[in-house]
Design a protein that fits this description.
The protein has 355 residues and is α/β, with parallel strands linked by helices. About 23% of the residues have low confidence. The chain is 37% helix and 15% strand. The protein contains nine helices and twelve strands.
Length: 355
Protein backbone atom coordinates (compact mmCIF):
# COMPACT_ATOMS: atom_id res chain seq x y z
CA UNK A 1 0.00 0.00 0.00
CA UNK A 2 3.03 2.28 -0.27
CA UNK A 3 3.18 5.08 2.24
CA UNK A 4 -0.57 5.47 2.51
CA UNK A 5 -2.38 4.77 5.76
CA UNK A 6 -4.79 1.87 6.02
CA UNK A 7 -8.48 2.43 5.38
CA UNK A 8 -10.90 0.96 7.88
CA UNK A 9 -12.69 -1.80 6.00
CA UNK A 10 -16.45 -1.57 6.24
CA UNK A 11 -16.35 1.80 8.03
CA UNK A 12 -19.62 3.69 7.94
CA UNK A 13 -22.75 2.33 6.36
CA UNK A 14 -21.60 2.07 2.77
CA UNK A 15 -23.69 0.03 0.38
CA UNK A 16 -22.59 -2.43 -2.25
CA UNK A 17 -20.85 -1.29 -5.40
CA UNK A 18 -22.81 -1.01 -8.60
CA UNK A 19 -24.68 1.51 -10.72
CA UNK A 20 -26.39 4.31 -8.84
CA UNK A 21 -29.33 6.14 -10.35
CA UNK A 22 -31.24 8.98 -8.67
CA UNK A 23 -34.90 8.31 -7.96
CA UNK A 24 -37.47 9.95 -10.22
CA UNK A 25 -39.09 13.06 -8.83
CA UNK A 26 -36.36 13.46 -6.25
CA UNK A 27 -36.00 17.21 -6.62
CA UNK A 28 -38.83 19.25 -5.06
CA UNK A 29 -40.42 22.01 -7.09
CA UNK A 30 -40.32 25.37 -5.37
CA UNK A 31 -43.86 26.69 -5.77
CA UNK A 32 -43.96 29.26 -2.99
CA UNK A 33 -42.44 32.69 -2.71
CA UNK A 34 -41.34 33.67 0.80
CA UNK A 35 -41.84 37.24 1.95
CA UNK A 36 -39.89 38.25 5.06
CA UNK A 37 -40.97 40.61 7.79
CA UNK A 38 -38.59 43.43 8.70
CA UNK A 39 -35.09 44.13 7.51
CA UNK A 40 -33.35 40.88 8.37
CA UNK A 41 -34.02 37.57 6.63
CA UNK A 42 -34.33 34.19 8.34
CA UNK A 43 -31.23 32.06 8.61
CA UNK A 44 -30.80 28.47 7.48
CA UNK A 45 -27.30 27.06 7.54
CA UNK A 46 -25.84 30.55 7.61
CA UNK A 47 -27.71 31.76 4.51
CA UNK A 48 -29.82 34.88 4.41
CA UNK A 49 -33.06 34.70 2.46
CA UNK A 50 -34.40 37.98 1.18
CA UNK A 51 -37.00 39.09 -1.34
CA UNK A 52 -37.77 42.38 -3.05
CA UNK A 53 -41.38 41.99 -1.87
CA UNK A 54 -40.37 42.39 1.77
CA UNK A 55 -42.65 45.39 2.13
CA UNK A 56 -45.71 43.24 1.54
CA UNK A 57 -45.82 41.94 5.13
CA UNK A 58 -48.78 41.50 7.41
CA UNK A 59 -48.74 43.84 10.41
CA UNK A 60 -48.00 42.15 13.72
CA UNK A 61 -46.95 38.83 12.15
CA UNK A 62 -43.83 37.23 13.57
CA UNK A 63 -42.34 35.12 10.83
CA UNK A 64 -42.77 34.70 7.12
CA UNK A 65 -45.72 35.20 4.81
CA UNK A 66 -45.98 32.61 2.10
CA UNK A 67 -47.85 33.43 -1.10
CA UNK A 68 -49.01 30.90 -3.67
CA UNK A 69 -49.44 33.01 -6.83
CA UNK A 70 -52.23 32.41 -9.31
CA UNK A 71 -51.63 31.38 -12.93
CA UNK A 72 -51.60 34.98 -14.12
CA UNK A 73 -49.69 36.44 -11.18
CA UNK A 74 -47.01 38.93 -12.20
CA UNK A 75 -45.76 39.39 -8.67
CA UNK A 76 -48.75 41.46 -7.50
CA UNK A 77 -51.55 38.93 -7.02
CA UNK A 78 -52.42 38.45 -3.31
CA UNK A 79 -53.43 34.75 -3.72
CA UNK A 80 -53.37 32.65 -0.52
CA UNK A 81 -51.44 33.87 2.52
CA UNK A 82 -50.33 31.58 5.36
CA UNK A 83 -48.31 32.71 8.37
CA UNK A 84 -45.58 30.46 9.71
CA UNK A 85 -42.78 30.83 12.22
CA UNK A 86 -39.10 31.36 11.47
CA UNK A 87 -38.32 27.95 12.96
CA UNK A 88 -40.82 26.31 10.61
CA UNK A 89 -39.19 28.01 7.63
CA UNK A 90 -35.75 26.85 8.76
CA UNK A 91 -37.08 23.32 9.15
CA UNK A 92 -38.65 23.34 5.69
CA UNK A 93 -35.49 24.67 4.07
CA UNK A 94 -33.41 22.07 5.89
CA UNK A 95 -35.74 19.35 4.63
CA UNK A 96 -35.31 20.53 1.06
CA UNK A 97 -31.52 20.52 1.41
CA UNK A 98 -31.53 17.00 2.84
CA UNK A 99 -33.81 15.80 0.04
CA UNK A 100 -31.30 16.98 -2.53
CA UNK A 101 -28.47 15.11 -0.79
CA UNK A 102 -30.36 11.93 -0.02
CA UNK A 103 -29.11 10.06 -3.10
CA UNK A 104 -25.52 10.48 -1.85
CA UNK A 105 -26.16 8.91 1.52
CA UNK A 106 -23.74 6.03 2.31
CA UNK A 107 -21.74 6.68 -0.84
CA UNK A 108 -18.05 7.53 -0.82
CA UNK A 109 -16.40 10.91 -1.35
CA UNK A 110 -12.68 11.59 -1.52
CA UNK A 111 -11.56 14.99 -0.20
CA UNK A 112 -7.92 15.95 -0.72
CA UNK A 113 -6.21 18.38 1.64
CA UNK A 114 -8.68 17.54 4.40
CA UNK A 115 -6.41 18.33 7.33
CA UNK A 116 -7.61 21.91 7.71
CA UNK A 117 -9.30 24.92 6.16
CA UNK A 118 -11.70 24.33 3.28
CA UNK A 119 -10.94 20.61 3.05
CA UNK A 120 -11.80 19.97 6.69
CA UNK A 121 -15.01 22.01 6.41
CA UNK A 122 -16.06 20.09 3.29
CA UNK A 123 -15.29 16.73 4.89
CA UNK A 124 -17.36 17.63 7.97
CA UNK A 125 -20.29 18.84 5.85
CA UNK A 126 -20.34 15.62 3.83
CA UNK A 127 -20.21 13.44 6.95
CA UNK A 128 -23.13 15.46 8.30
CA UNK A 129 -25.03 14.49 5.16
CA UNK A 130 -24.41 10.79 5.75
CA UNK A 131 -21.54 10.10 3.34
CA UNK A 132 -18.44 8.01 3.85
CA UNK A 133 -15.55 10.42 3.37
CA UNK A 134 -11.92 9.54 2.78
CA UNK A 135 -10.00 12.63 3.86
CA UNK A 136 -6.38 12.64 2.81
CA UNK A 137 -3.33 14.80 3.54
CA UNK A 138 0.39 14.40 4.19
CA UNK A 139 -0.28 14.53 7.93
CA UNK A 140 -3.48 13.02 9.25
CA UNK A 141 -3.48 13.99 12.93
CA UNK A 142 -6.01 16.78 12.37
CA UNK A 143 -8.18 14.52 10.23
CA UNK A 144 -8.18 11.87 12.95
CA UNK A 145 -9.32 14.49 15.47
CA UNK A 146 -12.06 15.66 13.10
CA UNK A 147 -13.18 12.06 12.58
CA UNK A 148 -13.50 11.61 16.35
CA UNK A 149 -15.49 14.86 16.62
CA UNK A 150 -17.88 13.76 13.87
CA UNK A 151 -18.38 10.40 15.55
CA UNK A 152 -19.03 11.90 18.98
CA UNK A 153 -21.46 14.39 17.44
CA UNK A 154 -23.49 11.48 16.08
CA UNK A 155 -23.24 12.48 12.42
CA UNK A 156 -24.69 9.77 10.17
CA UNK A 157 -21.60 9.51 7.94
CA UNK A 158 -18.03 8.43 8.60
CA UNK A 159 -14.70 10.21 8.09
CA UNK A 160 -11.80 7.91 7.19
CA UNK A 161 -8.32 9.51 7.51
CA UNK A 162 -5.69 8.56 4.95
CA UNK A 163 -2.08 9.65 4.74
CA UNK A 164 -1.14 10.61 1.19
CA UNK A 165 1.55 12.84 -0.29
CA UNK A 166 -0.23 14.26 -3.32
CA UNK A 167 3.04 15.32 -4.90
CA UNK A 168 3.87 11.61 -5.24
CA UNK A 169 1.90 9.72 -7.89
CA UNK A 170 2.62 6.37 -6.24
CA UNK A 171 0.95 7.57 -3.07
CA UNK A 172 -2.13 8.67 -5.01
CA UNK A 173 -2.40 5.37 -6.88
CA UNK A 174 -1.94 3.46 -3.62
CA UNK A 175 -4.76 5.45 -2.04
CA UNK A 176 -7.18 4.72 -4.88
CA UNK A 177 -6.21 1.05 -4.76
CA UNK A 178 -6.99 0.94 -1.03
CA UNK A 179 -10.32 2.68 -1.57
CA UNK A 180 -11.17 0.18 -4.31
CA UNK A 181 -10.31 -2.89 -2.24
CA UNK A 182 -11.89 -1.77 1.02
CA UNK A 183 -14.75 0.51 -0.03
CA UNK A 184 -15.52 -0.42 -3.65
CA UNK A 185 -14.56 2.95 -5.10
CA UNK A 186 -15.05 6.71 -5.33
CA UNK A 187 -18.41 8.31 -6.22
CA UNK A 188 -17.40 11.93 -5.53
CA UNK A 189 -13.92 13.39 -5.90
CA UNK A 190 -13.26 16.81 -4.39
CA UNK A 191 -9.86 18.11 -5.45
CA UNK A 192 -9.26 20.64 -2.72
CA UNK A 193 -5.53 20.37 -1.98
CA UNK A 194 -3.48 23.31 -3.22
CA UNK A 195 -0.53 25.40 -2.20
CA UNK A 196 1.21 28.67 -2.98
CA UNK A 197 4.86 29.59 -2.70
CA UNK A 198 6.18 33.18 -2.80
CA UNK A 199 8.16 32.53 -5.99
CA UNK A 200 7.84 35.34 -8.51
CA UNK A 201 8.22 34.89 -12.26
CA UNK A 202 11.40 36.98 -12.44
CA UNK A 203 13.27 35.60 -9.45
CA UNK A 204 11.34 32.58 -8.16
CA UNK A 205 12.88 29.19 -7.55
CA UNK A 206 12.26 26.32 -9.93
CA UNK A 207 11.64 24.14 -6.89
CA UNK A 208 8.80 26.39 -5.72
CA UNK A 209 7.22 26.40 -9.18
CA UNK A 210 7.40 22.61 -9.36
CA UNK A 211 5.81 22.21 -5.92
CA UNK A 212 2.84 24.35 -6.94
CA UNK A 213 2.45 22.68 -10.32
CA UNK A 214 2.74 19.16 -8.92
CA UNK A 215 -0.01 19.65 -6.34
CA UNK A 216 -2.28 22.24 -7.95
CA UNK A 217 -2.29 20.76 -11.46
CA UNK A 218 -0.78 17.27 -11.71
CA UNK A 219 -2.20 15.80 -8.47
CA UNK A 220 -5.62 17.20 -9.32
CA UNK A 221 -5.42 15.62 -12.78
CA UNK A 222 -4.24 12.25 -11.46
CA UNK A 223 -7.01 12.14 -8.84
CA UNK A 224 -9.55 13.10 -11.50
CA UNK A 225 -8.38 10.35 -13.85
CA UNK A 226 -8.38 7.69 -11.13
CA UNK A 227 -11.78 8.80 -9.80
CA UNK A 228 -13.30 8.58 -13.27
CA UNK A 229 -11.82 5.12 -13.82
CA UNK A 230 -13.22 4.04 -10.44
CA UNK A 231 -16.68 5.25 -11.41
CA UNK A 232 -16.58 3.76 -14.92
CA UNK A 233 -15.49 0.29 -13.83
CA UNK A 234 -18.45 0.16 -11.41
CA UNK A 235 -20.88 1.66 -13.96
CA UNK A 236 -21.47 4.70 -11.76
CA UNK A 237 -22.92 7.27 -14.16
CA UNK A 238 -24.00 9.99 -11.73
CA UNK A 239 -20.69 10.71 -9.98
CA UNK A 240 -19.30 14.19 -9.45
CA UNK A 241 -15.82 15.71 -9.66
CA UNK A 242 -15.44 19.09 -7.95
CA UNK A 243 -12.29 21.18 -8.24
CA UNK A 244 -11.74 23.81 -5.56
CA UNK A 245 -10.28 26.53 -7.71
CA UNK A 246 -9.74 30.22 -6.88
CA UNK A 247 -10.72 33.65 -8.12
CA UNK A 248 -7.02 33.74 -9.06
CA UNK A 249 -7.96 31.27 -11.78
CA UNK A 250 -10.06 33.97 -13.44
CA UNK A 251 -7.96 37.11 -13.02
CA UNK A 252 -4.32 37.81 -12.14
CA UNK A 253 -3.91 39.67 -8.82
CA UNK A 254 -1.15 42.33 -8.71
CA UNK A 255 1.14 40.80 -6.01
CA UNK A 256 4.10 39.28 -7.85
CA UNK A 257 4.44 36.38 -5.42
CA UNK A 258 1.03 35.04 -6.51
CA UNK A 259 1.56 35.08 -10.28
CA UNK A 260 2.75 31.50 -10.73
CA UNK A 261 0.06 30.30 -8.31
CA UNK A 262 -2.49 32.17 -10.41
CA UNK A 263 -1.19 30.38 -13.52
CA UNK A 264 -1.81 27.00 -11.88
CA UNK A 265 -5.34 28.06 -11.02
CA UNK A 266 -5.98 29.20 -14.59
CA UNK A 267 -4.97 25.65 -15.48
CA UNK A 268 -7.64 24.33 -13.11
CA UNK A 269 -10.25 26.45 -14.90
CA UNK A 270 -9.22 24.98 -18.25
CA UNK A 271 -8.95 21.44 -16.89
CA UNK A 272 -12.47 21.54 -15.45
CA UNK A 273 -14.02 22.68 -18.71
CA UNK A 274 -11.92 20.19 -20.66
CA UNK A 275 -13.11 17.45 -18.31
CA UNK A 276 -16.73 18.46 -18.88
CA UNK A 277 -16.24 18.23 -22.64
CA UNK A 278 -14.54 14.83 -22.45
CA UNK A 279 -17.27 13.45 -20.19
CA UNK A 280 -19.84 14.69 -22.68
CA UNK A 281 -17.98 13.02 -25.56
CA UNK A 282 -17.89 9.78 -23.55
CA UNK A 283 -21.69 10.06 -23.15
CA UNK A 284 -21.21 10.05 -19.39
CA UNK A 285 -23.51 11.80 -16.93
CA UNK A 286 -20.68 12.28 -14.43
CA UNK A 287 -20.51 16.01 -13.75
CA UNK A 288 -17.55 18.37 -13.40
CA UNK A 289 -17.67 21.59 -11.40
CA UNK A 290 -15.31 24.37 -10.35
CA UNK A 291 -15.76 26.36 -7.15
CA UNK A 292 -13.67 29.53 -7.15
CA UNK A 293 -13.55 31.42 -3.84
CA UNK A 294 -11.83 34.70 -3.21
CA UNK A 295 -10.16 35.37 0.14
CA UNK A 296 -11.01 32.62 2.63
CA UNK A 297 -9.82 32.91 6.22
CA UNK A 298 -7.57 29.86 6.54
CA UNK A 299 -3.86 29.19 7.07
CA UNK A 300 -3.23 29.81 3.36
CA UNK A 301 -1.70 33.27 3.75
CA UNK A 302 0.48 32.13 6.66
CA UNK A 303 1.95 29.38 4.47
CA UNK A 304 2.44 31.77 1.54
CA UNK A 305 4.06 34.42 3.74
CA UNK A 306 5.69 32.01 6.16
CA UNK A 307 8.56 34.44 6.80
CA UNK A 308 6.29 37.44 7.38
CA UNK A 309 3.42 36.50 9.73
CA UNK A 310 2.33 40.14 10.09
CA UNK A 311 1.79 40.38 6.34
CA UNK A 312 -0.10 37.10 6.42
CA UNK A 313 -2.37 38.27 9.24
CA UNK A 314 -3.06 41.54 7.41
CA UNK A 315 -4.54 39.54 4.54
CA UNK A 316 -7.54 38.70 6.69
CA UNK A 317 -7.82 41.85 8.81
CA UNK A 318 -8.98 44.51 6.38
CA UNK A 319 -12.34 42.90 5.52
CA UNK A 320 -14.80 40.22 6.56
CA UNK A 321 -13.47 37.21 4.69
CA UNK A 322 -15.19 34.07 3.52
CA UNK A 323 -15.13 31.18 5.97
CA UNK A 324 -14.28 27.60 4.99
CA UNK A 325 -17.88 26.71 5.83
CA UNK A 326 -19.07 29.11 3.11
CA UNK A 327 -17.19 27.08 0.51
CA UNK A 328 -18.46 23.83 2.04
CA UNK A 329 -22.00 25.15 1.61
CA UNK A 330 -21.27 25.72 -2.06
CA UNK A 331 -20.09 22.12 -2.36
CA UNK A 332 -23.31 20.85 -0.77
CA UNK A 333 -25.35 23.04 -3.10
CA UNK A 334 -23.55 21.68 -6.17
CA UNK A 335 -24.03 18.08 -5.06
CA UNK A 336 -27.69 18.62 -4.19
CA UNK A 337 -28.72 19.90 -7.61
CA UNK A 338 -30.72 17.45 -9.75
CA UNK A 339 -28.69 15.20 -12.07
CA UNK A 340 -29.65 17.09 -15.22
CA UNK A 341 -28.17 20.36 -13.87
CA UNK A 342 -24.50 21.04 -14.65
CA UNK A 343 -22.94 23.76 -12.47
CA UNK A 344 -19.82 24.84 -14.35
CA UNK A 345 -18.27 27.33 -11.96
CA UNK A 346 -19.24 29.14 -8.78
CA UNK A 347 -17.29 32.35 -8.29
CA UNK A 348 -17.63 33.70 -4.76
CA UNK A 349 -15.94 36.61 -2.99
CA UNK A 350 -16.25 38.39 0.31
CA UNK A 351 -18.66 41.27 -0.23
CA UNK A 352 -15.89 43.72 0.68
CA UNK A 353 -13.26 42.20 -1.62
CA UNK A 354 -12.31 44.62 -4.41
CA UNK A 355 -11.10 42.27 -7.15
Amino acid sequence: MGRGGALAAGAGRGGAAGPHRPPAGMWPIAEERRVEQGAEAGQSGGRSWRTSDAGRSTAGAAGVTRERPGPYDLGRSPAVQVLCSQSEVRGRLGTLARAGMERWRDRLALVTGASGGIGAAVARALVQQGLKVVGCARTVGNIEELAAECKSAGYPGTLIPYRCDLSNEEDILSMFSAVRSQHSGVDICINNAGLARPDTLLSGSTRGWKEMFNVNVLALSICTREAYQSMRERKVDDGHIININSMSGHRVPPPAETHFYSATKYAVTALTEGLRQELREAQSHIRATCISPGVVETQFAFKLHDKDPEKAAATYEHMKCLKPEDVAEAVIYVLSTPPHVQIGDIQMRPTEQVT
